[in-house]
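User: For my dataset I need records formatted as: sequence, then structure tokens, nothing else. Please produce one.
Assistant:
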Amino acid sequence: MAQSETISGTVATSNPQGIQLQGRNEWFNYSLKADPPLRRATVGEYVQLSVTRDARGTAYWINGYVEQPQTTAPPVSSAAAAAPATQASTTNGGISDRDRLMARMSALKSATALATQVPGITAGDVVQVADRFLAWLMDR
């Protein structure tokens, strides 16, 4: 019987069959034997997976999600750590610290993707674009 292991990370790519985590080359496939069927993770979501390898050791199958205690925060990416900190509270429009961080990371990722299409753009320009994306996301 295959041994189960726990793997965690932020979802970098997702499709109907599985996910890929940031910094990893492997795909983690949703088990078709899971009962009830597994929910599909979204890009940018931090997940802890219970996985097993197939008999040949070439593929990972997601058996389920490991529940995190509410006090545990996901690791902060280097880009998010370098960004100026904001004082987030759940009283500011009902947005949690985690949701605010995810929005900031999404805005920065989008600005970075856009920057690859514009020659001569600087890091400062990317941060300004990310701030505008974040303002739009937060309806400011």
